[in-house]
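User: Run a structure prediction on this.
Assistant: Running it now.
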Amino acid sequence: MNSIIFKATNINIKWNDKTAISDATFNFSADKQPLAVPVMGESGNGKSSLLYVLSALKKPESGSFKWKFPNGKVLTFDGKKIDYSHKELKKNLYINYFGYSSQNSALLPFFTVAENLKFPLQINCSKINSDQRLNSICEHLLGKSEIEILYKYPHKLSEGQRQRISLMQSIINDPYVLFADEPTGNLDPYNSEKAMNIIKKWLNGSLYETESKCRMLFWVTHNPLELLYFKEYNDNLIFVEKKKCSQIKIEDLKGKWKASIL
């Protein structure tokens, strides 16, 4: 079945021995078209903690969840441990299945931008193929005036450039699911739009010369305007409030937050 399915039941999350999220229950699936799920709410309410758990980077205190991917492989948490249906899934979870873009760039400082981008590619591709894939993606995402940044080291980049390169690194192997924690949080409107365009091109498959596939996006944002970028790919969101999560319709966000743009 060509779909991505995620179900979570009564998830409880602690961070530094304090409850971050309690009794979170979700049900999301992407089938014939991609799915984009915003995660919204006031700062300090556990949105980043939730993203860590959804991406299996952190185990919840209790509850259960299940990921099912289009190739039939399954990732589950039964309340005690994370189980993988296949060794390949465990080995390549953060290469082929999940991409993660954090608030702070994870670029290696002693690698050039091109080397940072090719590093995850070479796990799946030969050197020649990784060079070709990198060149193809950069043609889509970097204008001619910016190609030169491929030969710079991360500390020589602007904040907007670092954020966009970090996003590119997280999607360069075309994972099934992308988790992005405030990808535009520190950016001006011009660079925010560029970052959103990178994510959208990945989501709709225009970055890759491959057959269409299911893709799912979870991204933390405080900006209701960002919902407009992906309005054709979702009609609901996760809202975090007072350690509680709710899966609500985007149109109902007005009742929870001042979001007149919607």
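The chain is about 30% helix and 25% strand.
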